[in-house]
# Entry
Amino acid sequence: MSYTTIEAFVRNEEAGNATTLIVVNKASLAGVVGTLGDLAQRCCTANGFNGEAGQFIGLPADEAGGPVMLAGCNPDDGIHALASLPHRLPEADYRLDLRGVSLDPDQLALGWALGAYRYSRYRKSSRKAARLVLDDAVRDRIADIIEATYLLRDLVNTPTQELGPADLAGVVRALAERFGADYREWVGDDLLRNNYPTIHAVGRAASAARAPRLAMLRHGPKDAPHLVLVGKGVCFDTGGLDLKTADGMRWMKKDMGGAAHAIALAQLVLAAQLPVQLTLLIPAVENAVSADAFRPGEVIETRGGISVEIDNTDAEGRLILCDALAHAAELSPDLILDFATLTGAARVALGADLPALFCNRDEIANALLQAGTKTQDPLWRMPLWRPYLILLESHVADLANSGSSRHAGAISAALFLERFVPERFPWCHLDVYSWNDSARPGRPRGGEAQGLRAYIDFLKQRYPA
# Structure
């Protein structure tokens, strides 16, 4: 697979005659234009430029003789203040001038890159993105998060015929090769022989070419704190025998969004050389329909020794995660983080933009929420309200994978996962949408990273290099 690389930036020494891009808002416009002369003022007036967000206008050359562009922004948009410009400004190189606003250049540059992204595997862009002139120091500070975000978006955007379980595992293998990490995978019936029964059950209905598997990356010294990342890798979800409707199935290529988040975060941890022992676990399956599909009413003895009755085959994500989480707990980790496009209930409760955070440690949850605010990558904590375990009761097994009530669906799913993580281990679960339903500046329609900046900021504080 090839991944998106966009030249959103140009180095200082390569910029040549770059256009000066002066950023203003409505409040600062008059003062800034006053320094540019009467002709600039007349140009703004004649063209109705008032500093509103998204507006831009070319002006006569400045005193140094170079081209000038004014761009309006809303400082409250923060990281996305200039994100609409890369594909709207004329193709050229632009040197940022922040005399009219007080904004963080690193965050503006990151937002520029987020706005420059386009998934172009099948539909080529009609133009290149405008490029921002950056100092090497700024570029170095944001390069890793841009690369990881582009990777995540590409993975979620890729159609299932190009990204089945083997392909998703191949991404983990390639990451291991890049950073000199160990790689291992268990495929098909090897899952049964090595005691991953729920991963096998969910994926066994797919063809042999798309057999279920568990991909594992290991890296770092054995005496370092052990960080385990787990991601739900359902490469397509029909719902199984509890078949989804056509509308419900339409975007199920994105049901591996949790795996994309875990892979992208692993890449950031490795690139930052955090002093941890890292394990990445990606259960990768396709929830298909065939004569061999797992059925409602079946009972599976899971890796964690907990028996689970299948109430609904469309609650498959928690099943593949429970074996991976049981494996994670066997490693006596310092911290377990899992990511999953797990429930529509989380979207009903919080909408598309806010990932639902569940955590069994208040101090870790609070640190993640603070990191989300700092990086403009918000999370929202939801409760592990244990009385709701009654929603997962089974009369033939230790618990069911779902229940008849639609109440508290995101909470009951998180409680299901919590049963497979012994209380002595810190654990967080993030229920992500991984998707933008419509395009906004810096957030094109399609796959999206949610919480990625918050999580790597938190991990850098927890495990300083």
Observations:
- The CA atoms of residues 169 and 358 lie 26 Å apart.
- The mean pLDDT is 95.
- The two ends are 32 Å apart (CA to CA).
